Structure formats: structure tokens, C-alpha cells
């Protein structure tokens, strides 16, 4: 692991940390059977039965994995 040769000053540490900014995720709105859902783009979603039990993962309308 890399070890710094000298101590980093408080001002430099805080200046470096201040550059980090969180961004809100871009959600995609979809309407299925009259129900509006928001999901992350390019991610498989879980398909559940009426009781809420996960059945499988679906991506672009195709089954991609078992739950």
C-alpha cells in the first residue's frame, strides 16, 4: 500500500474533499398495467408474483436470471 512521504495539511485535505459532489441517480419512468414505476436505466428488474415473491430478473422484456 502507498504511504505518503509527508503529512498533508488540513487546508489541502479539506480542499481535496470539497471537490467531491454527490449526484442524484437518473431514473427512468415506466408505466406497466397502469402503474407508474421509476427504476435505474440499464439494470435488470425483479419480476414478482401477486404475493410479492420474486420469480426472476427481466431486462428489456427478456428473462435473464433466476431470483
From TrEMBL:
Regions of compositional bias (Basic residues) in chain numbering: 1-19
Gene Ontology biological-process entries: translation
Coiled-coil region: none
Single GO term (MF): structural constituent of ribosome
Annotated region (Disordered), positions in chain: 1-21
Matching Pfam families: Ribosomal_L32p
Record-stated family: Belongs to the bacterial ribosomal protein bL32 family.
NCBIfam families noted in UniProt: rpmF_bact
Stated name of the protein: Large ribosomal subunit protein bL32
Lineage: Bacteria, Bacillati, Actinomycetota, Actinomycetes, Micrococcales
Name of encoding gene: rpmF
Amino acid at each position: 500500500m502507498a504511504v505518503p512521504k509527508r503529512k498533508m495539511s488540513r487546508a489541502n485535505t479539506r480542499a481535496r474533499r470539497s471537490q467531491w459532489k454527490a449526484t442524484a441517480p437518473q431514473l427512468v419512468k415506466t408505466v406497466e398495467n397502469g402503474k407508474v414505476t421509476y427504476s435505474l436505466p440499464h439494470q435488470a428488474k425483479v419480476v414478482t408474483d401477486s404475493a410479492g415473491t420474486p420469480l426472476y430478473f427481466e431486462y428489456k422484456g427478456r428473462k435473464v436470471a433466476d431470483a
